[in-house]
């Protein structure tokens, strides 16, 4: 289990577009705080609510110098359609092979929905050195994080004041 003050696991995945552009977490370390918002699946009501709530608060993240990424096991095509449909401006990251999901110890199955190897809902804030400054993992994947607390933790991790 990844905890606060641990070095964040680095991973490679695909940006959530139809271009299959590679995403390397390491490329973003040192650019300010990074927010990794893991979510179970695009187009599901709780995930849609969460991603729209994060989009609605994007200015607060940007004011703190943070970069926000949504991470799920959805395909890049699905994530691209999800972004387009809901006006999401931040990048989504497709972890179809589940490497990041497993590295962050977030893999769950929701058998009643036929979903296996997906991400539990979780948010990690990484500081400029790649250290986990904040960690929140849902007890139930339908729960959403406390957005104001998250923004406060991002601001606290930022050199931008």
Describe this structure in words.
By secondary structure, this protein is of the alpha+beta class. It is built from 5 helices and 9 strands. The chain has a 7-stranded mixed β-sheet. The protein has a two-stranded antiparallel sheet with strand order 6-7. The model has no long low-confidence stretch (mean pLDDT 93).
Strand order of the largest sheet: 2-1-5-4-3-8-9
Mean pLDDT value = 93
Count of helical stretches: 5
Percent of residues in β-strands: 25-35%
Distance from first to last alpha carbon? 31 Å
Derived from helix and strand composition plus strand pairing, the structural class reads alpha+beta
Number of strands: 9
Order of helices and strands: EEEHHEHEHEEEEH
Largest sheet: 7 strands, mixed
Q: Rg to the nearest angstrom?
A: 14 Å
Quick summary of this structure?
This protein is of the alpha+beta class. The chain has helices spanning 45-56, 58-63, 76-86, 99-103, 147-157; strands spanning 12-15, 22-24, 34-38, 67-72, 91-94, 107-110, 115-119, 122-126, 132-137. The N and C termini lie far apart (31 Å).
């Amino acid at each position: 289990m990844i905890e606060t003050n641990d070095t964040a696991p680095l991973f490679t995945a695909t940006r959530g577009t139809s271009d299959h552009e590679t995403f390397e977490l390491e490329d973003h370390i040192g650019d300010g705080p990074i927010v990794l918002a893991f979510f179970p699946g695009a187009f599901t009501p709780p995930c849609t609510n969460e991603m729209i709530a994060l989009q609605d608060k994007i200015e607060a993240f940007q004011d703190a110098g943070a970069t926000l990424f949504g991470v799920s096991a959805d395909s890049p095509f699905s994530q691209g359609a999800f972004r387009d449909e809901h006006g999401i401006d931040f990048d989504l990251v497709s972890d179809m092979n589940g490497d990041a999901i497993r590295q962050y110890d977030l893999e769950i199955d929701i058998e009643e929905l036929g979903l296996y190897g997906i991400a539990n809902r979780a948010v990690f804030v990484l500081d400029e050195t790649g250290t986990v400054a904040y960690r929140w993992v849902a007890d139930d994947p339908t729960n959403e994080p406390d957005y104001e607390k998250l923004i406060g933790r991002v601001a606290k991790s930022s050199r931008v004041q």
